[in-house]
Amino acid sequence: MVSGNPYVRNLLFRLPIELRFKIYEYLFIHDGSAIEIGRQSHTPMGNTSILRVCHAIYHEASIALYHSMSHRKLFFRTYGSFSADVLNRRPSPLQCCRNMSYQKWLEYPCVVRELSWKRSIHSVVFLIGALDFMMALKRRWAFSEFITTLRMGDHMRIYSLTVVAAQNWKMPGFDENDLVQALFSGAIMYLGKLTFRGFSNKERDRLCQLIHARNIPSLKIEREKKRIQGPGFSLWICKVFFFLFLYLVRFTVPIFFSHHGKFLQIH
Q1: CA dihedral 197, 199, 203, 207 (to 10 degrees)
Q2: Any stretches that span the bilayer, and where are they (predicted)?
Q3: C-alpha 74: how far from its chain's center?
Q4: Collapsing DSSP states into helix, strand and coil, what is residue 88?
């Protein structure tokens, strides 16, 4: 149903797919805002009322809904198998679709192919550690379960991953080596940037050493920018350009005037 069919009873499917995309873009958020996983207050994914209109609209609109998550920032405060399900979530087939007669604009049983769900996530934030030691310990074991669940399924394709460290993130049995091992265990496929926040300089240097040793060409590690120290740096740059200017004037100006019948001598 790319160009639209003027003979179908569903008025939405009479529109071309470009206009339907505009409708879905208006209903489902694509502004890069955060979806916080683990807060008691529910973070809405968008206006999902359109999914309850009919089974045909459900299947097409649900594709737009779940792919809109690729343009949101997923902020994980709690972990576990249920958190991994958020990353791998996809629309479930409706029971009524199995009893429907075949229609040319739907694939039996009205579900899209699995290939369509191998989407990439734009931005993900992992929070590890906590002010309370017992909460930090619980989060540490839940994080390991979360990574194991992802590794057993399809790896996630992430463009930007930020790991935020709170207090008590480092404890016996879990340090920089274990964190890097979890992040590069095959659960996540990195397509761009990996950022560390909240770590000390020593911890960050150790993490970078461990990651660089893996030689991953597609990964960019973001670190805090350091100012260039030392007096006279900008002055030295100015002197270089000044002497370069004098050199050009000294040798190019006489040549220019000599070609025009005049010669200007600079002392």
Answers
A1: -20
A2: 233-257
A3: 9
A4: helix
